[in-house]
């Protein structure tokens, strides 16, 4: 028996998940109104069926997956709430965004009056591709109903915990991995500024070979994602507690990624372009 999954939106992750579900035989819907030509093409290539409106998107669907930049999660829930309220059969609303447990609880509170079931989820890894699926962790009282997604090509992992547990795991994991990337790139820029970059790379290669290998891979991949990581670092700051030392660390990391995103966008690059500096420090 097939399933119907509605997905918003059609970024690399949303379209990747949609394509995997479509390849396994699921009907996958999306809403393209107001989206860019690139989003429309990603949806087409993924086999996602365009819906005319919110009613068509959600009516008869088994699941709705919200896969958006974190800053858009609450607004999407508010946008869809009236349609969910009016539906006789309601999809399980699964928030898969990189949001804090606090934000997940707010999104759940928006969905609760609609009587649609809500599941908190967090994606760890890149978009699905041949032979690979990111791990998607899920939690909350209705989480058992999502286990069927494992049968449709998704690495779906259930956490025995409340709404917020899956988001908390995502925040913790991303805080470590992307936090290390932020610290490494900041220190490399500092070393380049004071003329000791080559010595730093040589020392790390000698005494911390695993770390320099990680940074050598993660820093270049970060460039075109830095703008998306700003809001995620702000969510991690919220997760740890705004105004606390730990929360302030990630608020500052958000500003660091904001600076790197701005530097990458410069055309032509300024003489002190941070991205070009990191390229040189890493010898790329």
Outline of this structure?
This protein is an alpha/beta fold. It folds into two domains: 4-163, 3-Layer(aba) Sandwich (Rossmann fold); 171-281, N-(1-d-carboxylethyl)-l-norvaline Dehydrogenase, domain 2. The chain has helices at residues 12-23, 37-46, 54-58, 73-86, 101-111, 165-193, 197-207, 209-222, 226-240, 245-265, 274-281, and strands at 4-8, 27-31, 49-51, 63-66, 92-95, 118-124, 135-139, 155-158.
CATH architecture of the largest domain: 3-Layer(aba) Sandwich
User: What is the 3D form?
Assistant: elongated
Class based on secondary structure composition and strand pairing = alpha/beta
The CATH topology of the largest domain turns out to be: Rossmann fold
Low-pLDDT windows of residues: none
> How many structural units, i.e. domains?
2
CATH H-level superfamily of the largest domain:
NAD(P)-binding Rossmann-like Domain
Mean pLDDT: 94
> Helical proportion?
40-55%
CATH class of the largest domain: Alpha Beta
- DSSP helical segment count: 11
* End-to-end Cα distance: 51 Å
Q: How many strand elements? A: 8
Output the helix-strand order: EHEHEHEHEHEEEHHHHHH
How much of the sequence lies in strands comes to: 5-15%
List the quaternary state of the chains. single chain
Largest sheet geometry: 8 strands, mixed
Rg value: 20 Å
């Amino acid at each position: 028996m097939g399933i119907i999954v509605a997905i918003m939106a059609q970024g690399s992750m949303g379209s990747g998940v949609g394509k995997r579900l479509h390849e396994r035989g699921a009907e996958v819907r999306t809403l393209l109104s107001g989206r860019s030509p690139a989003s429309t093409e990603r949806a087409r290539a993924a086999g996602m069926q365009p819906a005319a409106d919110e009613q068509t998107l959600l009516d008869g669907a088994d699941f709705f997956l919200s896969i958006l930049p974190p800053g858009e999660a609450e607004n999407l829930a508010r946008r869809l709430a009236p349609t969910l309220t009016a539906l006789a059969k309601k999809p399980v609303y699964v928030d898969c965004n990189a949001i804090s447990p606090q934000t997940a609880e707010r999104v759940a509170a928006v969905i609760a009056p609609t009587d649609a079931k809500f599941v908190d989820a967090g994606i760890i890894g890149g978009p699905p591709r041949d032979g690979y699926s990111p791990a998607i962790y899920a939690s909350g009282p209705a989480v058992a109903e999502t286990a069927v997604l494992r049968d449709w090509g998704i690495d779906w992992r259930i956490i025995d915990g409340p709404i917020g547990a899956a988001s908390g795991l995502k925040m913790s994991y991303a805080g470590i991995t992307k936090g290390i990337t932020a610290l490494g790139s900041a220190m490399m820029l500092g070393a380049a500024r004071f003329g000791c970059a080559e010595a730093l790379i040589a020392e790390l290669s000698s005494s911390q070979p695993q770390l320099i290998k990680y940074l050598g891979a993660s820093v270049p991949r970060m460039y075109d994602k830095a703008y998306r990581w700003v809001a995620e670092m702000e969510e991690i700051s919220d997760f740890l507690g705004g105004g606390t030392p730990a929360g302030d660390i990630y608020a500052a990391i958000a500003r660091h990624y904001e600076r790197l995103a701005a530097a990458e966008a410069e055309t032509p690059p300024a003489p002190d372009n941070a991205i070009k500096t990191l390229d040189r420090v890493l010898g790329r």
